[in-house]
Each structure stands twice: as C-alpha cells, then as structure tokens.
UniProtKB/TrEMBL annotation:
Xref: PANTHER family: GNAT FAMILY N-ACETYLTRANSFERASE, LD18367P
InterPro entries assigned: Acyl_CoA_acyltransferase, GNAT_dom, NAT_camello-type
Domain N-acetyltransferase: 9-167
Name under which the protein is recorded: Acetyltransferase
Stored PROSITE patterns: GNAT (PS51186)
Record-level Gene Ontology MF annotations: N-acetyltransferase activity
Top-level lineage group: Bacteria
UniProt entry keywords in alphabetical sequence: Transferase
One family name in Pfam for this protein: Acetyltransf_1
C-alpha cells in the first residue's frame, strides 16, 4: 500500500464552517510558542471561536489555508481599532508546522495587503513577538518597518515587536 502525497494547499476566504478548525490551529501554534492568554496573545481573543463573523464586517477579511481537506493555517486584515481610519492591521497569521516554509504565509500576506489597498487603507500595522523570528523575517521582507510605539488599542500587551508598512 503506497502513501498518497499531500494535495496542494489552497487559500480561500473563511467560511462559518472553518471557525473551529482555525481556532484549533491558532491554539496549537500559540501553545507551541508559549503564547498564552494571560499575556494578551490571540488565544485570549473573545472572538477566537467566531472568526467568520468577525471578519465578515466591512473592511475585514480572513483567509484560511486548506490542505487535504483540513484547515492548516490562516491570516487576516482588519481596520486598526482606536486608530486613524487609513490604518489596517495584519492579524492572526498562524500556520501549522507541516506547511511552514512553502511560501504560503507570504502569499496570504500579499493577498491581505492587496485587499487592504482595495479597501482604501494606506498603511498596515502589525504586532508580533520576538519568539516568532521567521514571521518577523517575512514581514521585513514584505517592507514592514519596525516602529517603537504601539498604534491603536490591540490589547496585545506582550507583543513587543511593532511594525508598519505604507501600502
């Protein structure tokens, strides 16, 4: 009996049926890196189990990565709360180890930035942590610059890496 090769990963917009699967991915990756709810990381987000509803709002979008019928990653874009209306935030970029290193995070981020431009945003902000070295490298490669002070009111108190990109 031969094993079948994994199917090519597909990026698509989130559906309501993806809620539990993407929440599971985010929790698993957060645990892998020690990103706990008590520190204000994404796992503390009260909307984590309802991302479809959150990202169905105007100016919001979220994409999931599906491989072999399973959600294995995702990321999104949303207006930055408590901020100037032209700034959006790249949010909830999480990928299981099995699909890292295949360029899917870059592809998804570029889709999100294109969507942000189409929505009229002129700048994109993000917060992350120094633990996520590969993610920081990707964001730098995409043209994000490090900034000192936080923007908006994200509630991510331990996300000490803040970056901004002109769209």
């Amino acid at each position: 009996m031969s094993a079948t090769a994994p199917q090519r990963a597909v990026l698509r917009r989130i559906t309501v049926d993806d809620n539990q699967a993407i929440a599971r991915v985010i929790r698993q990756v957060s645990a892998e890196y020690g990103l706990t709810a008590d520190k204000g990381y994404t796992v503390a987000d009260p909307n984590l189990d309802e991302l479809y509803a959150l990202y169905s709002q105007p100016g919001h979008a979220y994409w999931v990565v599906v491989q072999d019928g399973n959600v294995v990653g995702g990321g999104g874009i949303a207006p930055l709360s408590c901020s100037e209306p032209d700034i959006c935030e790249l949010q909830k970029m999480y990928f299981l180890p099995s699909i890292r290193g295949q360029g899917l995070a870059k592809k998804l981020a570029l889709m999100a930035l294109d969507h942000a431009r189409e929505q009229g945003f002129t700048r994109c902000y993000l917060e992350t942590t120094a633990f996520l070295k590969e993610a920081i490298g990707l964001y730098e490669h995409l043209g994000f610059d490090h900034i000192d002070a936080p923007l908006g009111c994200t509630g991510h108190v331990d996300c000490e890496v803040r970056m901004l990109k002109t769209l």
